Each structure stands twice: as structure tokens, then as C-alpha cells.
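Continuing from the previous page...

OK, I double-checked the sequence for Ribosomal RNA small subunit methyltransferase G against my notes and this is the correct one:
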Amino acid sequence: MLVAELGQYWDRYAGSLQDGQLTSKVSSDELELCVGHLEYVLKANENINLTRITDPHEAAILHIYDSLVLLPYVDDAPKGKLLDIGTGAGFPGLPLAITSHRPSVLMDSVGKKVKVVEACASQLGVERVKTVHERVESYALSHRGEFSVVVARAVAHLSTLVEYASPLLKKDGLLIVSKGVPAADEVSDGSYAAQICGFDTPTRYDLSLPGKRGARAIFVFKKSHKPSMKLPRAVGMAKKHPISK
Ligand SMILES: C[S@@+](CC[C@H](N)C(=O)[O-])C[C@H]1O[C@@H](n2cnc3c(N)ncnc32)[C@H](O)[C@@H]1O
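Thanks. Re-ran it with the corrected sequence; updated C-alpha cells here:
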């Protein structure tokens, strides 16, 4: 039931993408796995606080569909590994690992969330997923230039995310961020931080979730040059003192 519903929403979304190069496919087997992930999370949520959205139809849109809308941009990144910063219960990282087929690292600084995602991926048999319990700033010290694509949803301001992702991405790699509609200041600080941290000016794509469930802005930053500051800064600095104009 949820698979059929999601399939319809996905087909409509994929058909609405203007750019002929963004043509991602999602199979019903992959959607089954995504629904399996959601069911696992909703069950685990009875014991651990993972999500406030408990209605399965609502959650299918606000977690699975909301993750999958990033897939066309993920597919546009160079071949190689994906990192989800602040994955929480595995969104958007696990649906994107399932559908993009990229080796994927799902990271969070909260251990109990990481344990749920790890157990879920293992139960679903999604082998290309590795989970990491660490803060992204310390992880970046030993994983420089390792990723082709970094994603994040509901983790931090754009300028903080740009700073987190820069040392982890290889040249031409993409940072893809999903936001509810952000304030103008956040967008201009994000573009300013992008320049300093080695990215081109981001491209923005706006969309509405099905059933008037809100708007999203997807920002795609391409790593194009060397940052003009030493990264990563000490743990906590990117959040406490974000780069701003
Ligand atoms: C609001 S939750 C969003 C979770 C998920 N991305 C989603 O959209 O459902 C933000 C998550 O980011 C994690 N987080 C925040 N700062 C982090 C950091 N510096 N390194 C790793 N994880 C971080 C938090 O522990 C939390 O689980």
C-alpha cells in the first residue's frame, strides 16, 4: 500500500524534473526496502525518541519521499561514496543508499540512533551501508577527500554544513542539503561560506511535498577549489561561530 503510494508520488516527481540529465529510477523492490526501514524506525520509536511523525502515511511522505527527492542530485555526483551527516534514524541516508547503490556512510553523534540504523540496515540486508558514531568535525580529520557526495537534512545552517562537508569531499564532489524554506540571511551566508570553503555558488531547486505538506529547497554545492581557511576547525566552532558576511 505504502509502496504503491510512494511509487505514484515518485513517478510524478521524476516526471516534473525539467533538466533532462536528472533521470533517476526507483524500483518497487527498492521502495519495499525504504518502507521496511520506516517500519523498523516506527517500531523502534516506541522505545527511543527518533521521530515525532508516527502515522505511516505521513511518515512515508515526510521521511521516505522527502529523502528520495534528493536522489536525482545524488545521481548527478561523480562516482563514489556517499556520506549522510547527522543521519538520525537514517534519513535521508538509508533511502539514498538503497536507491543510489553507492557505498554509504551514515553518521550521527548520538550512539543510540546509530545503533538503530545499523541494526535496521543489517536486517534489510543493505550491505553497502556503514554506520559511524562520531561528530563530523573529528571524522573529517581522518577521511579527507573520501566522498563524492555529502547529504544532510535538518542538521545545521547552510554555512555550518558547507564547512563540515568541505574537507570530506573530493574535487567536483557535491554537497546536497534539504531545507524547509530558509531565511534570506541563511542563504546569503551559505553562499559566502561556500566561496571560502572551496565551493561554487550553490544551485537551488524548490519543490512542494505532496498533499500540502510543506515546501522544500534543495541546495547543491559543487566543490571546485581549495578552501581559503584551514578545515576542519575545532569541534563545535562551525556551529557556534558560523562563517557569515
Ligand atoms: C534534527 S536531527 C535530523 C536527523 C535526520 N537527518 C532527519 O532529517 O530525520 C539532527 C541530527 O544531527 C545530528 N548531529 C548534529 N550535529 C552533528 C555533528 N556535528 N556530527 C554528527 N551528527 C550531528 C544530531 O545528533 C541529530 O541526530
